Amino acid sequence: MGENKTGVTPSEASMDGIQLVASILMCFPEMAKVTLDSEDSGVWLDFTLKDVPTEERMKKADKVITDSMRLYHELEGFSRARLAFFYAKGVLRIFRDIDSLTRAELDILVSIIRDHFSDLLLADTVNNIDEDVLFNQSEMIDHRIRFLRKNHIHENMVGIREEGRVMVY
């Protein structure tokens, strides 16, 4: 394994990717799965729903997410952010590119999902996570995203939440 132009080995980039996926899942119990996509240099955020949302509800949520993210990206100076939002087989899926993703944006996205789908959202229960640990994980999300912007994601990674635990493959 060689180093890339920033002096970081693929295994170091992979470890940071694993830590990012785990941190996102720890901080946002509404997410059932987080996938780092090396081909598209992005992240898929999956929210499990217990029932199929109506088309009208999906259109409203899509508009709010699209408008909110467009405004947020304008304010943050990101002109080419990539975003996708759809429902398939019991899962709301959101795609975001790593180049413009931030922890603050994750907070906004999760708040919108909570607002529009709270009655359908299957959120995992978080068992006794120390508030300091949770705060540290949250603070590290932006650091890990910045690291992955500079160092290409070398492999796909999938993190899932199951019975209060987070596992990354």
Can you tell me about this structure?
The chain has four helices and six strands. With 169 residues, the chain is α+β, with helices and mostly antiparallel strands. It has helices spanning 10-27, 55-76, 103-117, 131-150, and strands at residues 33-37, 42-48, 83-88, 91-97, 157-162, 165-168. Strand 5 (157-162) and strand 6 form a beta hairpin. The longest helix is centred in the middle third of the chain and has 22 residues, at 55-76. The protein is globular and about 50 Å long. A six-stranded antiparallel β-sheet has the order 3-4-2-1-5-6, covered by helices on one side.
Span of the ends, CA to CA: 20 Å
Percent in strands: 15-25%
Helix run count = 4
Shape: globular
SSE series: HEEHEEHHEE
Structural class determined from secondary elements: alpha+beta
Average pLDDT taken over every residue: 88
List how many beta strands DSSP finds. 6
What is the percent of helical residues? 40-55%
Radius of gyration from the alpha-carbon trace, in angstroms: 16 Å
Give the low-confidence spans.
none
